[in-house]
Amino acid sequence: MDSRDESLTELVQQSLYDIKQDGVPPRQVAEYYRTRAAGGVGLIVSEGVVIERPSAKNDPLVPHMYDDEALGGWARVIGAVHGAGGRMAPQLWHLGPRLEPGGTSWVAPPPIDSASGLRDWTLPRIAPMTEEAIADTLAAYGRAAANAVRLGFDAIEIHGAHGYLIDDFFWSVSNTRTDRWGGATLRERARFGAAVVAAIRAEMPDEMPLIFRLSQWKGIDYDAQVARSPAEMADWLEPLTDAGVDCFHCSQRRFWEAAFDGSDLNLAGWSKSLTGLPTITVGSVGLSSEFIGGGVSTPTPLDEVVRRLERGDFDLVAVGRALLADPFWLEKLRAGRTDEFLAYDPSMRATLT
Q: What DSSP designation does 154 have?
């Protein structure tokens, strides 16, 4: 991916829940993404799209990448994006133990998939994933990837962050297994993530980019650290790189914060330094407050993200809420009309514009 003249937007999943029909993207979604492509976005990454496992989602409206009806909806989406000159990747997802209630009273059927049977600090323990469940999950990731390739998507992103299933295996607090899917070192706990990468990579053409989203923070612990040092981060990323990742999408709540003491490099900067692969930074880009803070966020200067981009810390910049508020955000940026940027209000997630 040649990244210096591209921008990437990750459109958050909550923005589209209210108009999904049992996980099938309707025509309004195709138009929503087409508008962002027409506005000059270089690569659109979809909201989370779940694989075919019983408890992969926490709401029937969460979109999925299986069955004829859903795949027909995604065919409309990618056709609309390509028609506007854009490119798009689905973000393949499994919530794992993070099954907090969604927008309805619907409850995911058992079994709930998790590394060691831990959900959060308040819910009772459940059974860890069996070898059979892990094998079925890997196969489901592969099928979802094959569907995305067949539909004509330009890349694939794996959601391996925020305490969801793959990240549940990375973190020492949530992965206490003593078999081959656990271990005392991060390199050992990365085996499941690497197996997911390999299953997806096997269904993709060699030239098709595979992006992996990762984070330190979790939805249940904002101060969590999967890797406590650059050396541990190298142990984390090397198995994923060897399995076939082409680019790391490094999620932070605030992109400007240093990942480790002794350097101002953020998570994307360290990922690039350690692997040599292209990286994506994200986290409150162009807005005054972070996503999880709620409330209205006003536009802020982009000088710091540009400085780090030009320094070579990362190769792509992910913009989420700013593009939810204004599909022509990038067009305005390129024209120097930053005074026309719009504020973001959480109510915008409930409608498509």
A: S
Can you give the C-alpha Rg of the chain in angstroms? 19
pLDDT > 70? residue 37: yes
CB neighbour burial string for 8-25, b if at least 16 within 10 angstroms, e if fewer: bbbbebbbbbebbeebbb
Q: How many Cα neighbours within 13 Å face the side chain of 237?
A: 30
Residue from 17, 32, 141, 164 carrying the catalytic annotation: 164
Query: Residue 66 has which token pair?
Result: 């299986």
* CB-based contact 212:245 (threshold 8 Å): yes
* Domain-wise residue ranges, the chain: 8-350
Confidence band for 121, pLDDT divided at 50, 70 and 90? low
Indicate if the pLDDT at residue 289 is higher than 90. no
CA–CA distance, 312 with 241 (Å, rounded to integer)? 20
Share of the chain above pLDDT 90, in %: 68
pLDDT at 255 over 70: yes
Burial class (CB in 10 A: 0-12, 13-18, 19+), 144: buried
Residues near 56 by beta carbon (within 8 Å), at least 6 away in sequence: 50, 64, 93, 94, 95, 108, 113, 140, 165
Beta bridge partners of 344: 297
- Whole-prediction pTM: 0.92
Return the H-helix or E-strand segment holding 151.
Answer: helix 131-151
The domain defined by 8-350 folds into TIM Barrel (3.20.20)
Is 33 known to be catalytic?
no
**258, burial (CB in 10 Å: exposed 0-12, middle 13-18, buried 19+):** middle
Per-residue pLDDT for 3 more than 60?
Answer: no
For 262, the enclosing helix (H) or strand (E) is none
Confidence of residue 60 (pLDDT cuts 50, 70, 90): confident
